[in-house]
Specification:
Length: about 300
């Protein structure tokens, strides 16, 4: 066959078709609204919990929402580099992203437990039931594990609680380890890898419900005796916000906020997330104060 430097007709058609399909795929991805969510118990759990909400928002706004589970370390780069349009993450991340990159809360989560709608949560400091550690001061010189230094319910709340009780968690423990996932912290304490740990309220209860642990195998230090239905050691802070990044169109923000507030407690999206729904944004000043105190102590 003579080489002419041209594609045969069939090859040219095939090449054109491939380019066309790739173009469609790229446009489809570009047209999606990216919903980032902190995968505090891993990406699989995050998809199970939040994909139905992304689908709900797609139906109610007329836009195509895609879910992007994010590790603790991936949150700030995703916001900073415009990889996501919306974010569901702990209040500590929200306050930081608001101050650095202008994210704004559209709604605050209503957690659901024992039929109660809860707009606040706390941190749990716990040891094994057979541990000789009886009070906070006993943890001095011991191994302690948080979820991440940037985890609000699984780290920063407890750090402030220690500070309020005259203990600097960054200087007075033999080691301060990071489990990366809430479940990992619980299992590390259970197996005796560390002496004590902290996770957000409702983690122990949910792991027990899933058959992974028994709460009776643990003891909560400084357990608060109040009407809040989850075990907790710290004061309570406002629940997770649903936040818009600077690149999210204001017209879409209005639709999203309306859809979130219209989410019914018994809907598939609410059941999957184990929440009662969403309410108007709460005041996160208390969270900012906590972050400032912890940051100062960590220097």
């Amino acid at each position: 066959m003579e080489k002419t430097g041209k594609f045969p007709g069939s090859c040219a058609t095939l090449l054109f078709t491939i380019i066309f399909l790739l173009s469609l795929a790229m446009n489809a991805v570009a047209g999606q609204v990216k919903l980032g969510v902190l995968a505090k118990r891993g990406k699989t759990k995050a998809v199970q919990q939040w994909k139905p909400l992304a689908d709900y928002l797609s139906r109610h706004t007329g836009e195509s929402f895609s879910l992007l589970p994010l590790s603790f370390d991936a949150i700030e780069p995703a916001v900073k580099n415009g990889k996501i349009d919306y974010l569901i993450a702990n209040p500590g991340f929200f306050v930081t992203m608001h101050e650095k990159y202008g994210t704004k809360a559209l709604a605050s989560m209503l957690n659901l437990r024992q039929g109660e709608e809860l707009n606040r949560f706390g941190g749990v400091i716990f040891v094994r039931k057979d541990s000789p550690l009886e009070k906070l001061s006993d943890i001095r010189g011991k191994k302690f594990m948080c979820v991440k230094l940037t985890s609000f319910g699984g780290g920063q709340m407890a750090f402030r609680h220690f500070l309020d009780n005259g203990i600097n968690p960054f200087k007075e423990f033999t080691s301060l380890l990071q489990g990366k996932k809430h479940d990992n912290v619980v299992l590390a304490v259970q197996r005796g890898i560390v002496d004590a740990g902290t996770v957000r309220s409702d983690t122990l209860e949910r792991m027990e419900m899933e058959g992974k642990i028994k709460m009776s195998d643990f003891r909560i230090l400084d357990r608060k005796d109040d009407k809040f239905p989850f075990a907790h050691s710290t004061i309570l802070y406002p629940e997770w916000p649903f936040a818009a990044t600077r690149q999210a169109p204001e017209a879409l923000n209005v639709k999203v906020a309306e859809a979130l507030k219209a989410l019914e407690k018994g809907s598939p999206a609410a059941k999957a997330a184990r929440i009662a729904g969403w309410t108007a944004p709460l005041d996160y000043t208390q969270v900012k104060e906590c972050l400032e105190l912890v940051k100062k102590a960590a220097r």
